[in-house]
C-alpha cells in the first residue's frame, strides 16, 4: 500500500503542573480535602493524576481504578494461551461486557474461552483497551505535521515484506493459513468486539503502510469482506480505492486475474466503483467540452 498522509489540526493541550507549597496551611488543607472528597474506587475519574499501581488509563480516556475490579482470564486460540484483564476495562467492549455479566462466563472461575481468536490479535485488543493504542503506535511528526508508525522503516523488511510502516505489517492467521495485513485483522476484531475507535485507528494505521504484495492485499481484502457486515463499508471502500488507485500494478498481476476469475462480492463492488470513477471523469470532461462515451 502506498503511504497516505493523515493530517490533523487537533492538538492536545499541554499539562500544566501545579506548584506545590508546603508552607501555606490553607493550601495543604484544601489539597487534603480534595483527596477526602475523591470519588469512590471503581468510578471514572476524568483527568485525575493518581498512583499508577492503583489506576490505569483506559481506551476511553478515563482513569479507572483497578483496586476492586475483578480479574478475568481468557484462554485464546487453539493452543489455549492465557490472558488476564480487569473487568472494568473489558466493559468498554459491549461483547466483553455481556460476557462478564454471565454470557459465555463460568461463574466461579471468571474465565472466557475464545478458541477461534488469534492470540496476537487479542493481545493488540487488550493493549488498546488499556493504553488507547497498540504497537506500533501512531506517532505525530511535528516537523512534517503528519502521522507515522512507531519504529517505521524507509523500506520493506527483507525477511518480512511489510512496507514503510514496520515489520509488523502482516501476521499469520491460522484460520486462513496465510499472512494477512495485521491492521485489517485488528479492524475486524474491533467489529466483533464493538470497538469503533479501534476500527478507526486500525484503518488509519493501514493507510500508512506501503510496499505490500498484491497477493497479500487481495487475501486481506477477501478477509475484510468475510468478517465485516455489508453495513460497514469503510474497510471495504479502502481496498476498492487502493485497487483503483494502483490499477496498473494490479492489472499486471497474475494473482489479480486468478482472484477475479474465482469471483466474489469484492469484485462486483470493484466493478461498480470503477464505473463510478469513470463516470466522474466523464462528467468532469463534459463540463469543459461536452462529449459522451
Automatic annotation (TrEMBL):
Gene3D superfamilies: Potassium Channel Kv1.1, Chain A
Pfam families: BTB
InterPro entries: BTB/POZ_dom, SKP1/BTB/POZ_sf
Record domain BTB: where: 72-133
Matching SUPFAM superfamilies: POZ domain
Protein's name according to its UniProt entry: BTB domain-containing protein
Species in which this protein is naturally found: Hyaloscypha hepaticicola
Amino acid at each position: 500500500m502506498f503511504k497516505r498522509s493523515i493530517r490533523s489540526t487537533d492538538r492536545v493541550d499541554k499539562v500544566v503542573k501545579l506548584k506545590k507549597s508546603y508552607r501555606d496551611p490553607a493550601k495543604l488543607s484544601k489539597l487534603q480535602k480534595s483527596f477526602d472528597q475523591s470519588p469512590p474506587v471503581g468510578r471514572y475519574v476524568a483527568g485525575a493524576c493518581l498512583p499508577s499501581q492503583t489506576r490505569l488509563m483506559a481506551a476511553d480516556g478515563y482513569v479507572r481504578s483497578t483496586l476492586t475490579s475483578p480479574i478475568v482470564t481468557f484462554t485464546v486460540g487453539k493452543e489455549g494461551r492465557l490472558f488476564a484483564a480487569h473487568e472494568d476495562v473489558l466493559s468498554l467492549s459491549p461483547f466483553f461486557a455481556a460476557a462478564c455479566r454471565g454470557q459465555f462466563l463460568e461463574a466461579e472461575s471468571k474465565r472466557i474461552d475464545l478458541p477461534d481468536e488469534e492470540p496476537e490479535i487479542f493481545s493488540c485488543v487488550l493493549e488498546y483497551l488499556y493504553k488507547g493504542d497498540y504497537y506500533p503506535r501512531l506517532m505525530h511528526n511535528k516537523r512534517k505535521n503528519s502521522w507515522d508508525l512507531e519504529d517505521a522503516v524507509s523500506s520493506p523488511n527483507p525477511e518480512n515484506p511489510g512496507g514503510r510502516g514496520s515489520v509488523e505489517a502482516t501476521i499469520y492467521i491460522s484460520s486462513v493459513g496465510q499472512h494477512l495485513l495485521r491492521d485489517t485483522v485488528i479492524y475486524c476484531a474491533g467489529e466483533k468486539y464493538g470497538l469503533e475507535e479501534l476500527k478507526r485507528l486500525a484503518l488509519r494505521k493501514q493507510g500508512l503502510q506501503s510496499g505490500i504484495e498484491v497477493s497479500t492485499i487481495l487475501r486481506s481484502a477477501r478477509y475484510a469482506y468475510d468478517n465485516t457486515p455489508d453495513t460497514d463499508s469503510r474497510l471495504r471502500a479502502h481496498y476498492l480505492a487502493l485497487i483503483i488507485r494502483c490499477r496498473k500494478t494490479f492489472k499486471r498481476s497474475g494473482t489479480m486475474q486468478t482472484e477475479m476469475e474465482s469471483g466474489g462480492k469484492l469484485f462486483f463492488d470493484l466493478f461498480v466503483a470503477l464505473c463510478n470513477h469513470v463516470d466522474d471523469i466523464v462528467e468532469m470532461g463534459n463540463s469543459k467540452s461536452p462529449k459522451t462515451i
